[in-house]
């Protein structure tokens, strides 16, 4: 194994097709002044904060949204439309930025995000709101994936070990703060303010975009990397990524929306099988691109990354830990409102222990990995803590257990924070410089894929228990108007509601513990005794992919340019 962290990602015998024996020219790392980097980080991280908080801010508002539109069966699509668009476009935006530049792609993402945030607040019916949320998610996916690309690329070498902590704190903090802010706005105003606070003229968005544009580095302060033309864009791979991801999640969401069992029916089987076929087609296509067409396309989902055992384990852990995280974010506030009788604000506040420990875990992860590479151990401990927290939450039943639940949430938050920061750092250590952008995009996509499955399966748990406990006690109309007409229900009906939502939460936590346990096992497979580290990485040159110093030719028709 090579000593260099950047070089160690290429196992012997697995040299990428575009490699050659000729010496490669090196490119100088970014020379951005520290003050400019920190200000730019503020602008970029504010964008990440807004995009992440919008993935969870509706968690405590779904109850009110469902009541206004007289439906509880389809209201989860308000959350899922955002995360599915987020999921489908994260890698695509990463590849798109290789064509139009990081700055331009970030601005495009910002404009899409804020325009449709405003539109969501004016939605007149549920289908409109769901459609606007999907477009909002497209913009949010760009803010998310591009943040994880821009910061490591422009970061001075001596600060690179802190990037994972910064990103991890923002992701973990905004994810748990979203339900609190959503509850606050819903409690003192209307759910529409959840979206209006993100409008393009809003102070946070305006400040963020202004800081970003005004502090973007000059051309000579940016690293020189490979720039692709529109012809190099892997359109087929991008479409397959979106289709494969969305169809699998859609199948589980549909399974939870209908009252009868659909596991053996076409309404579930058709999209699920299509999604699985989509994943097979994606992997087959990307193999062809890497082995035969690498001179024509930049892979949207490079499978060569997964030949690195450490990266593969980190990606698997990211996928599986995204499931319990978003499942908790959406299912716990619903339980708090229905079972414990909390307001939207109170339900959001109950997630604060998760918020605090998530940020703490991200900071700890960055600190302990700043000098020595203990990323595998960090990922393993994070997965174990998520498993512990989810397992303990299965013992929570009625309102009397609320205090216990707060402590158990802290374990889950700490585990998620440790894992998120460690996975982000892992890419900068393990992925080749030419693939770090798409490697970060893949992690972003996998985290949201796991979370989207968490949201969709939460629907299955709730509806299964509702069918069990509500039979002969509650009509569909009474269920749909719980938020407005709940005071007219009898004590027997309220008891059935409490039992149904309490049991659905318990079963959700059983599933979360099982999935987190699988993450522990998958993380174990990523152990490497000899590892690269930040000291090696600082000394390693950043390569220009495929350039041949001897011939002086450009990489198969692609341009080497600044990332601006």
TrEMBL record:
| Membrane topology summary | Multi-pass membrane protein
Top-level taxonomic group: Eukaryota
Under which name does UniProt file this protein?
Major facilitator superfamily transporter
Record-annotated membrane-spanning stretches: 37-65, 77-96, 105-124, 130-150, 162-181, 193-214, 235-255, 267-289, 310-332, 344-362, 374-393, 405-429
Q: Listed GO cellular component terms?
A: plasma membrane
Q: Where in this protein does the record put region Disordered? A: 1-25, 534-564
Biased composition annotated in UniProt, kind: Polar residues: 1-22
| GO terms, molecular function | transmembrane transporter activity
> What's the source species' lineage?
Eukaryota, Fungi, Dikarya, Ascomycota, Pezizomycotina
- Which PROSITE patterns does the record cross-reference, listed alphabetically? MFS (PS50850)
Localization, per the record, is: Membrane
Q: Which residues form the Major facilitator superfamily (MFS) profile domain?
A: 40-531
Chief place where the protein resides: membrane
What keywords appear on the UniProt entry?
Membrane, Transmembrane, Transmembrane helix
């Amino acid at each position: 194994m090579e000593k260099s962290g950047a070089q160690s990602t290429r196992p012997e015998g697995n040299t990428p097709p575009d490699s050659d024996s000729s010496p490669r020219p090196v490119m100088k790392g970014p020379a951005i002044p520290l003050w400019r980097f920190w200000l730019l980080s503020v602008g970029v991280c504010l964008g990440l904060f807004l995009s992440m908080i919008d993935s969870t801010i509706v968690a405590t508002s779904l109850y009110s949204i469902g009541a206004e539109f007289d439906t509880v069966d389809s209201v989860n699509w308000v959350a899922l439309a955002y995360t599915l668009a987020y999921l489908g476009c994260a890698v695509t935006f990463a590849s798109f930025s290789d064509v139009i530049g990081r700055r331009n792609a970030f601005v495009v993402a910002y404009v899409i995000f804020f325009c449709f945030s405003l539109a969501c607040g004016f939605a007149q019916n549920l289908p409109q709101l769901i459609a606007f949320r999907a477009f909002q998610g497209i913009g949010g996916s760009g803010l998310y994936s591009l943040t994880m690309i821009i910061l490591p690329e422009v970061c001075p070498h001596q600060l690179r070990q802190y990037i994972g902590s910064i990103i991890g704190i923002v992701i973990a903090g905004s994810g748990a703060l979203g339900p609190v802010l959503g509850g606050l706005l819903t409690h003192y105003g209307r759910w529409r303010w959840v979206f209006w606070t993100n409008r393009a003229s809003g102070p946070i968005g305006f400040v963020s975009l202004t800081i970003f544009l005004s502090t973007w580095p000059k051309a000579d302060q940016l690293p020189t990397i490979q720039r692709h033309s529109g012809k190099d864009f892997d359109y087929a791979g991008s479409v397959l990524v979106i289709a494969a991801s969305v169809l699998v999640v859609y199948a589980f969401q549909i399974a939870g929306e209908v009252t009868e069992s659909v596991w053996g029916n076409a309404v579930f089987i058709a999209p699920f099988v299509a999604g699985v076929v989509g994943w097979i087609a994606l992997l087959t296509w990307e193999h062809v691109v890497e082995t035969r067409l690498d001179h024509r396309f930049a892979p949207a989902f490079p499978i060569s990354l997964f030949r690195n055992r450490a990266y593969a384990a980190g990606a698997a852990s990211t996928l599986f830990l995204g499931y319990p995280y978003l499942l908790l974010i959406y299912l716990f506030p619903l339980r708090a409102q229905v079972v414990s009788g909390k307001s939207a604000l109170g339900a959001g506040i109950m997630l604060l222990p998760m918020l605090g420990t998530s940020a703490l875990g991200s900071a700890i992860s960055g600190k302990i990995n700043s000098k020595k590479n203990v990323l595998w151990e960090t990922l393993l401990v994070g997965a174990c803590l998520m498993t512990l927290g989810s397992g303990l939450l299965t013992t929570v039943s009625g309102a009397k257990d609320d205090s216990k639940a707060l402590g158990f949430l802290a374990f889950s938050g700490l585990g998620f924070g440790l894992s998120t920061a460690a996975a982000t750092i892992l890419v900068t250590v393990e992925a080749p410089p030419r693939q770090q952008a798409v490697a970060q995009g893949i992690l972003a996509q996998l985290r949201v894929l796991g979370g989207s499955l968490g949201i969709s399966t939460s629907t299955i748990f709730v509806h299964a228990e509702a069918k069990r406990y509500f039979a002969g006690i509650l009509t569909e109309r009474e269920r749909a108007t719980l938020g407005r007409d709940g005071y007219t229900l009898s004590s027997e009906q309220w008891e059935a509601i409490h039992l149904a939502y309490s049991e659905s939460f318990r079963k959700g936590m059983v599933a979360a513990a099982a999935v987190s346990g699988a993450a522990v096992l998958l993380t174990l497979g990523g152990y490497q005794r000899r590892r690269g580290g930040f000291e090696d990485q600082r000394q390693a040159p950043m390569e220009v992919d495929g350039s041949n110093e001897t011939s002086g030719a450009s990489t198969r028709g692609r341009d080497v340019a600044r990332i601006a």
